[in-house]
Specification:
Distance between the termini: 72 Å
Oligomer: single chain
Helix content: 10-25%
Number of helices: 3
Largest sheet: 5 strands, mixed
Number of strands: 13
Order of helices and strands: HHEEEEEEEEEHEEEE
CATH topology of the largest domain: Immunoglobulin-like
Number of domains: 2
Shape: elongated
Length: 167
């Protein structure tokens, strides 16, 4: 066999290995990972303590691409979203610094209010984040501030979250 023939055979075999399930298991190529875009979310929207019905709540997660979900508040100002998980090959890609961007906004009276803005490099759930997202108490008259919550996983660092909500 000529050197060109050997090169072609080796190239075909190499492509097969890179794209096969065998290489996925051995090297992580092509494997899909579960990525938690958001834990369960529950919150209340009020203005000066009065619950607001019909406020549009938009939840956006950007990981591989931007994805959006929407709901509205009920007569008690309450809203919720279920846990949101996606499958992605990104965590298995070499030399990729992946980031997850979480945003929740309220739209009311022609204005947009930031209820949650957070960026993280983790694809598993984070206990402090899950706890805060299950108890969003948001008064549309409150000022947006940056909150700093200590990371249970690494107490020397904080989660930095922008929001009008309080806990």
């Amino acid at each position: 066999m000529t050197s060109v023939g050997r090169f072609l055979v080796l190239s075909v075999v190499g492509l097969f290995l890179v794209n096969s399930e065998v290489s996925a298991g051995m090297f992580g190529f092509g494997k899909k990972y579960d990525v938690e875009l958001f834990p369960e979310v529950e919150g209340w929207i009020v203005r000066d303590g009065v619950p607001l019905e019909g406020v549009i709540i938009v939840r956006e997660a950007t990981y591989d691409e931007a994805e959006i979900q929407e709901t509205t508040t009920d007569q008690h100002g309450y809203f919720s979203f279920p846990e949101w998980i996606t499958s992605s090959r990104t965590p298995g890609k070499p030399f990729v610094e992946d980031r997850l961007r979480q945003v929740i906004v309220a739209k009311h009276g022609g204005q947009t209010f930031v209820l949650w803005y957070y960026v993280t490099g983790r694809i598993e759930g984070e206990s402090v984040v899950a706890e805060k997202l299950r108890a969003l108490l948001c008064d549309l008259n409150d000022e947006e501030v940056d909150h700093h919550f200590q990371k249970a996983e690494n107490p020397d660092f904080t989660h930095n979250i922008s929001s009008i909500c309080r806990w």
